[in-house]
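Quick question: what would this complex look like in 3D?
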Amino acid sequence: MAWVVAKRAAAASSSSAMKSVSAAAAIWMRSYAKVALGTDIVSAAPNVSLQKARTWDEGVSSKFSTTPLNHIFKDKKVVIFGLPGAYTGVCSNKHVPGYKENIDKFKAKGIDSVICVAVNDPYTLNAWAEKLQANNAIEFYGDFDGSFHKSLDLVTDLSSALLGTRSKRWSAYVVDGKVKALNVEEAPSDVKVSGADTILGQI
Amino acid sequence: MAWVVAKRAAAASSSSAMKSVSAAAAIWMRSYAKVALGTDIVSAAPNVSLQKARTWDEGVSSKFSTTPLNHIFKDKKVVIFGLPGAYTGVCSNKHVPGYKENIDKFKAKGIDSVICVAVNDPYTLNAWAEKLQANNAIEFYGDFDGSFHKSLDLVTDLSSALLGTRSKRWSAYVVDGKVKALNVEEAPSDVKVSGADTILGQI
């Protein structure tokens, strides 16, 4: 809902977040090749790791370890969704709760992991996941430098919303690293195609 | 304390955060000129704005407004401190609480604003400030793209701690935009010179 308000506010503003989003979406359409049905995510993002959400103290204890994509996807059925950021509107109110509420349906379909990823550091992402009480159902991974989303051409400039370079809103069903279903929203305000209900029908 | 642990962990790790910090500190020593005693912060960071910490919905309502430095510093006595990030160790456990607990002493010395700034988006910073119960005493401002800290040569690469480009840990006493006292830690694990006690003695 808040993103809908954002869209209205943006309509009245020449330097709006939504105009940036539209421009970024147009760019993305021209560079669609990086991720599509059949893409092997591990190969498409070589040498890229994600960072498991955790507290700062856990980060220190782990010596700031990261998780190679291979460990996340190999021999697994994964549902992964990306979103613009912790502590933003639709992400908090709709996108994450939809996956959390349907976790039993995903498990019943044989999904090994439901993963949320965002261009945030893993400590911020962990605090947000705890606040949403979603960290038991969903695995959260940070992409603090955006390298994962950049490799897949899934970044967008949300500087006009005071966020900087972030992830588009998207979801994918991935089997042993291969993309079997992919849904990318045209605007980050939308949860038209990237919500839990849609991808449940694609598994 | 957690950063002390980080330092120990880093000592045993070839790709440690602390080594990056040391390297960055060395670079900083060579480029000290941008901010020093007497610097006019508003002139040193032209066309730079900060983003008042707020919820996403407040961000939408404000049309994602930003605050020019002139509004923050002009005709005011300001104590400002910067830190590596929301939801990290020393920042949460020591740096912010020190300023919060001494807010009455700052006010008694005629300080108009005590400001915390970090390379975070304003929504994340707001959630963290609320968690620390510090947002009534201290004003929090995000520097989401790091442009404020870059202008003042106060950034450091904390990618090894999974944070990316962030602020050094620092504090300053600023009167009508002019820096009257400046304290920059050599390592972000330290609160040797940038804490509330030190700057209280410099006002």
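Answer marked as accepted. Chain B has one domain: 39-201.
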